[in-house]
Write a structure and sequence with these properties.
- By secondary structure, the protein is an alpha+beta fold.
- 34% of the residues lie in helices and 16% in strands.
- The chain is built from 8 helices and 7 strands, in the order βαβαβααβαβββααα.
Length: 257
């Protein structure tokens, strides 16, 4: 565990001020941000995934909502400079917005961990679905939640998160850790139980594992917003073929915005 000798303790008022500053940086671009303590995450993951911070260390899980594509990604690729060919354009966009958080809090030591980052041994640096679940922002449904498992342990069934407002139409983009800030008064928010029955959970896991390409798992509940058709087209296209789509978006993008 990384012990900070210059740790700053804040109360809920201090947390609210941090959230206000995050709102200025992230709200206009279609992101959500939900607080958690590192201890909540560490107690849920294997030792190899634990993060080296005090249990009370403050962090936020960052979520992109459906509007992120139009509010953040398209302006990024069309207006904010040349996309580097060796990096995924969406990853670059996320890196820029996480960097904006660091700039806003330049007086605080912050570590940003993206969902796509891997360790030298090729394992994820952060299990974003667990982070989202313990923050209360989303509900992480897994095979182990089932009282009666129809797969009977014979099949590897991947878990999936649902958002209470967006269903499956969102993405967990990573975590920002306020390394020297601790917030003992932050109380854990249990994730909402979004699905009513175990049968609903089985159907969600079936759709996600066996039919993820048809988007159906994302609409397992009524949602307030979905990805636009342009966004669906983009993610349905092989990464190597997305350049033409980006060019199309940029040709119709209003650069005066």
């Amino acid at each position: 565990m990384e012990e900070q000798t210059n740790a700053q303790y804040i109360n809920l008022g201090g947390l609210k001020e941090i959230q206000k500053r995050l709102a200025c940086v992230l709200d206009p671009y279609g992101f959500e941000y939900h607080p958690l303590k590192i201890g909540w995450y560490n107690e849920q993951v294997a030792k190899c995934f634990q993060l080296p911070y005090h249990d009370e260390t403050l962090a936020f899980v960052i979520i992109s909502t459906p509007s992120m594509f139009e509010k953040a990604f398209i302006p990024f690729v069309c207006k904010l400079g040349q996309v580097k060919s060796n990096l995924d354009p969406l990853d670059q966009c996320m890196m820029q917005h996480f960097s904006a958080i660091k700039e806003e809090f330049s007086d605080v030591k912050i570590e940003a961990i993206h969902d796509f980052e891997l360790t030298p041994s090729r394992r994820p640096k952060i299990l974003v679905q667990t982070a989202g679940h313990v923050s209360g922002a989303v509900r992480y449904y897994q095979q182990k939640d089932l009282m009666s498992d129809p797969w009977d342990g014979k099949k590897k069934v991947f878990g999936v998160c649902l958002h209470p407002g967006y269903g499956g139409w969102f993405a967990l983009r990573g975590v920002v850790i306020y390394s020297t800030i601790r917030c003992p008064s932050l109380s854990r928010q249990q994730p909402r139980e979004i699905l009513a029955t175990e049968g609903d959970v089985v159907e969600l896991l079936r759709l996600y594992n066996d039919h993820w390409q048809d988007w159906s798992f994302r609409d397992i509940i009524p949602v307030k917003e979905r990805y636009s058709q342009e966004q669906k087209n983009y993610f349905s296209t092989q990464p190597g073929d997305r350049k033409k789509l980006i060019e199309k978006y940029c040709n119709s993008f209003d650069r005066s915005v």
